[in-house]
Amino acid sequence: MFRSPNPSPPSKVRATLKRTLFHSPYAVVAWAPPSDELDTPVDFYKVKLSLDNGRTWSYEPKVTNDSEPRFDHFWLPSNHGGYAFKVAAVSTEGRTSAYSEPAKLFVY
User: Fold this and answer.
1) For 36-83, how does the pLDDT look when each residue is reduced to its tens digit (9 = 90+)?
2) CB–CB of 71/28 below 8 Å?
3) Which of 34, 41, 50, 66 is positioned for an S-S bond with 11, CB 3.0–4.6 A?
4) 10 Å Cβ neighbour count for 95?
5) How many CB atoms neighbour CB 22 within 10 A?
6) Domain presence at residue 10
7) pTM for this entry
8) Using only C-alpha atoms, what is the Rg of the chain?
């Protein structure tokens, strides 16, 4: 396979949110690997979490590359309001894609 000497970052990830409630609320953020993964192999994913509906962001632990990557976040307090997650892919060369559009969740 031909590889460019200056590989580009992976394409933007499309994150989707799956929300499940049991005894305490939690969220599962799942996404498909970037469509160009064969040309730009993904090493891991970065996940950002916002507790204020996207105004400020914090990093969560990196997610290893998997055929069905996902991030489980446990214990989202109810009555808090809006949460948001966004995801970026990091290539084996260390290049980072643009972050996905925020996947928003409201817990009341």
Assistant:
1) 756 778 899 999 988 888 889 998 888 887 778 888 887 776 666 678
2) yes
3) 34
4) 15
5) 7
6) no
7) 0.77
8) 15
